[in-house]
Amino acid sequence: xxxxxxxxxxxxxxxxxxxxxxxxxxxxxxxxxxxxxxxxxxxxxxxxxxxxxxxxxxxxxxxxxxxxxxxxxxxxxxxxxxxxxxxxxxxxxxxxxxxxxxxxxxxxxxxxxxxxxxxxxxxxxxxxxxxxxxxxxxxxxxxxxxxxxxxxxxxxxxxxxxxxxxxxxxxxxxxxxxxxxxxxxxxxxxxxxxxxxxxxxxxxxxxxxxxxxxxxxxxxxxxxxxxxxxxxxxxxxxxxxxxxxxxxxxxxxxxxxxxxxxxxxxxxxxxxxxxxxxxxxxxxxxxxxxxxxxxxxxxxxxxxxxxxxxxxxxxxxxxxxxxxxxxxxxxxxxxxxxxxxxxxxxxxxxxxxxxxxxxxxxxxxxxxxxxxxxxxxxxxxx
Length: 382
Hints:
With 382 residues, this protein is mainly beta. 8% of the residues lie in helices and 38% in strands. It is built from 2 helices and 30 strands. It has helices spanning 2-24, 215-223; strands at residues 25-28, 31-34, 37-42, 57-61, 84-92, 110-113, 125-133, 136-141, 147-150, 156-157, 172-178, 191-192, 198-206, 209-212, 227-230, 236-238, 256-265, 268-272, 281-282, 287-288, 293-300, 303-307, 317-318, 324-325, 330-337, 339-344, 350-351, 356-358, 363-365, 372-375. Strand 28 and strand 29 (363-365) form a beta hairpin. The longest helix is centred in the N-terminal third of the chain and has 23 residues, at 2-24.
């Protein structure tokens, strides 16, 4: 019995000796490396609320040495935690017995962040990871599915270009991203993630809409009678290099235009009475239907040249903006300034010189009469 106890004691001594050897030194390729202190890297994940497999890592160092951080080389890898990033490695606040202090939630109370470029090791120690949840950019979609983008602080997120990556909502057209729920200020891209979460709001309008950014896209939307969302950074579209001819205007319109204060300037229109079609009304839009809605837009320096010498019908009407506005149509903050109406023909027809349109519902005034010049001649338009 006594002999058995002696054997057990010798085994314990041998195990202790082996453990000490592992902590203070190792043999690589026949070379013995000695270390003064052991540094423990604790991933401090107990209260993150996620399943992890982050075991402690160890590093043997000599007195006064600087440390390498997990991830600084291939043999000493950093253990990642999904949806979290590490802000650094910290010492812990210790109690009077040398044990790390924990807060009410069981988290280690962190003290000083370790500076791997300057700080040196003076004894055995433990460093604790300071994990934080990855910041998010949430794109709110009213009545649809929000999009959440997650990246690390400092990473950049570019504005999505592909339609499949843009916010979606059945029966709606995506317009753009805004900083607020009233869609007044555009959200700036590219966006650089900070440590804080961010929110932006996607504007989607019901139905099919054309986003007008140029003269060409305005003309295309007008010819197809589409809804228009005018988005021009400089606030104006200059039509000086284009000309609306027969068949490119006066088409009738029953859609919506959101102008956002845009000025459509230097519009030139050339029209001729057609004996075959016997068209009796001439104007930029033609008839505005009951669902037409035109908001916040200015027509400046609009010149309309119409040759009606082929008829003297008293029913013929000439107008700059529209020859008829149906009950239910809406004009909000629509202005026409510095207009010129050049015509050729008799004066036996109606020329709308005042810009008033009266329906059973309301009266619209599109422009000041003093801003309209009427001449009984055709001026060449180029």
